[in-house]
Predict the structure.
Amino acid sequence: MTMPSLSEGVQQAAKLLPTRFPNWQSPQFFLQFGSGFDLETLFDAPAQSLPMQELPGMPCQPNPDREHPDLLYGVVCDIPVLATRGHRHLYEGLGLYPCLLPLCTAWKLGAQRQLFIDSSLSLRQEIKAGTWTLLVDYINGHPFSPLDGNHDLLESSFPDMTNAFSQEQNSELFNAMFDVGLSPRHSIFMAQPGSQFCSVAEAEVARSNGADLIGHDLVMEIIMAHALGCKVSALVLAAAMAPDYRGKPLRRQDLLDNCRFCSQDIIRGLRKAIPELIADAAPPVRLPDADADDILHRDFKRPTGRTTPNPLSLKKS
């Protein structure tokens, strides 16, 4: 099968999805979940699902976690949401297209708020395994950008990445997480190529570069979503500590188990944050204009509700 260009794939997928999900409404959020997370309680009712391989140009084989990623559509607190259960990775060797198509399609369909939930290794002793973090910046460890060759999707070919993460959205997410008992650490994430865990020396280099977390994914999606004009946030679980020469070898299954174990708190936080983000984005109600004389006239004639005589009227008598 010939893979279409990303722009062509987005157009085709955006036409397909509304026909595959009954009761379709344009999603207000796109949520991308990495492997291992339990999404059972995210939606108000069981979500409709579509195997990601049914999108144009998407691979059919399972990913390295032996999963077939799905697209999920449903409502969260009555708000339409498009989400992924798992996703495609650069280290699969299939290029950027499978990694970017879901988020770009969601953007095309109206999801201007995009949240990325994934796992990583902690580079800091104060960020223990099992700690949730909220990204405030990133380091692209790849020698390329997701924007390469995809400028036809962008309003500006040279987007500024100073505020790649929405401060307003991050603030609302932090408050919602705090309300459910979490206090996510503001962190900087570095993406590295390949599916292998970083070496001890690579972890040290990442620390010296200012990173708090290191992992395989996220950065390509973050850059593209921001370049498309979306409000972007990323919640990242420190699923394990980065290696040192004295520690035990890292096992992928241990990270996936930690993701599953830590899922419910983040789901409760997301269910609280999503409606609050929508409410905060609603335009304020504008009151009708009135001039000062009209206001004073109405106020003067307003009934006082008194049950005793007005002392001023008694004075006249």
Q: What stands out?
A: The chain has one domain: 7-303.
